[in-house]
Amino acid sequence: MISPCWLSALTFLLLLDLTCARQIALLIIDVQNCFLPGGSLAVTEGDKVIPVINNIRSEYKADISLVALSQDWHCSDHISFASQHKGAGPIIQLLYDKSGSLCDENNNCTEVAYNLTQHLWPDHCVINTSSANFSLSLTQEPSDIVIRKGYNCKVDSYSAFYDNGGFRYTELHDKLQEAGIDALIITGLARDYCVYYTAMDAKKLGYETYVVLDATRPVTKATGDSAVADMKIKGIQIIESPDVATVI
Ligand code: VGL
Ligand code: ZN
Prior knowledge:
25% of the residues lie in helices and 21% in strands. The protein is α/β, with parallel strands linked by helices and 248 residues long. Pfam families: Isochorismatase.
C-alpha cells in the first residue's frame, strides 16, 4: 500500500511536471499550390515536405498544443511581382517613409526612412485563387490557426510574424502567447525565405525555435545553405524529423 505521504509527494511532482512542461506549436509555412511542383513559384521537391509534416502532426499529436499554417496571400498587382516592374530586376530597392508608406514611382518622399531590398518574383499566391490554396494533401484540422500575410499590396511579407519592413505584425505572436506557447517547430516552404524569416523572428521574440530541415525545401541550394548557416549562428536549432522525438 502506498502511503498518503508518498501519494501527495507524487501528486506534487506530477503537478510540477505539468506546470513546467513546455507548450509546443507546429508552424507550417506556405504549403500552398503556388510553391508546389506545377505552381507559379514552384520550389523543387516542395511536395516532398507534405508527408513529413503530416507525419509529425500525427506522431506527436499529444505533444503539440497548437498548429498554425501561414498563407502567402497577395494582391494581383503585388509590389513583389516582376510583372509590376517591367525591365527591372531580379532585385530592386523600395523606399518607404517612416509610417511605412511606399514612396511614389519616382521614389519621392518627404523623408525616406526605410530602403528595402526586394527580390522580384513571378506572380504567385494571389488572393482567392486556387494557386493560394493549401495543398489538398496537407492534413488540416478545424482547430488549426491560419495566418495570412503579404496582403498589403505595397510591402512583401516573408515572415509569418511581421512584414519585411517590420511595419505591421500579424496575429501569430498574440495567438501563440494566448496559448502559452514557448517552443516552435517550424516546417514548410521555402527554407531560404519564409521559413528562414519566420524562424529568425521567432527566435528574436524569445521562442525556443526548431527548424525541421527535411520538412523544408529551398528556392535555391545556395540561399538555402546560407539561410541554414545563419539560423545556426542565431541559435535556431536545425533538426531532422526523427529528432523531433528528442526535443518534444
Ligand atoms: C515565399 C518568395 C515569395 C516563401 C513567398 O513562401 O518562401 N518566397 N513569397
Ligand atoms: Zn510571396
